[in-house]
Amino acid sequence: MSNAMRTPAGAIPVERYQGAVAEGRFRRLWNANAPGYLFLLPWLIGFFGLTLGPALISLYLSFTDFDMLRSPSWVGTANYVRIATADPKFSAAMHVTLTYVVFSVPFKLTFALLVAMALNRGLRGLPIYRAIFYLPSLLGGSVAIAVLWRQLFASDGLVNAALLHFGIEGPSWISHPNYSIYTLVALSVWQFGSPMIIFLAGLRQIPQDMYEAASLDGASKFRQFHKITLPLLTPVIFFNAVVQTIEAFKAFTPAFIISGGTGGPINSTLFYTLYLYQEAFGNFRMGYASALAWILVVIIAIFTAFSFLTSRYWVHYDD
């Protein structure tokens, strides 16, 4: 017997009833969540239109030969094969970038932690000191600071003038391949304000009674730092290390300005991002530059995954 024959006269069919219930549930959910979705709409447009969309397009372009003048032509994995086997500048850029990361991040975090511990002693006018020390992080990535840094470390710059007072004749730091990368490391360490603020917030969360109990037990300041401060601060150290390492991999402006966009002398300041820029906007090899960009994404992803996997052995949380 059909559904129409089983439905009593005047009764609402089951399908219509279920549809009405589903429609009513959808309307209630929409009325409850519509304001939130409307506020999220600018972010959603930016994410899909300016982040996810261009990322997917660049992934496609990484498998093509594209010079912005002609339509992309599919070349498969040729760009990646060339990067791995026939591009000496890729190796040079990776070496320079890894050198920069290995030196800049530990020195930057160490200096930021030392300053944060000094500020945590309850200095008078602490907000003023915080603002002063944070200012380099706001200005350090600008073109003006990079130009100023180039003048400081020039052969006749302020650094060599100060060394000359002690009878030391300094080299031209930015034009010597053995020293140029370390001027960029110094610039990165100078921008310690952001991790310093985070370290200071973490230090404020450590209970003072733990230090008092350790002092009563005769623990020295160094032992208190080693046994109390560092273990309780490891989540903050982990966060700062991951964030600052990612930022170091993405560094571009200082190397571009100080080297004049060439990465010189002798590729000693050829950051990976600078080489990517040269391939994209200097040689108009957009497909090849897209492949370089995705390799950088993979490198950062591998580092981040490795950091999270190993964090269980040295990062201590409340549990």
From TrEMBL:
Compartments, as annotated in UniProt: Cell membrane
Biological processes annotated in GO: transmembrane transport
Keyword Transmembrane in annotation: yes
Keyword Phosphoprotein attached: no
Span of domain ABC transmembrane type-1: 94-307
Gene3D superfamilies to which the protein is assigned, alphabetical: MetI-like
Name this polypeptide is given: Sugar ABC transporter permease
Membrane topology classification: Multi-pass membrane protein
Similarity field: Belongs to the binding-protein-dependent transport system permease family.
Segments crossing the lipid bilayer: 37-63, 98-119, 131-149, 179-203, 255-277, 289-309
Main location: membrane
Keywords for this protein: Cell membrane, Membrane, Transmembrane, Transmembrane helix, Transport
Gene Ontology cellular-component annotations: plasma membrane
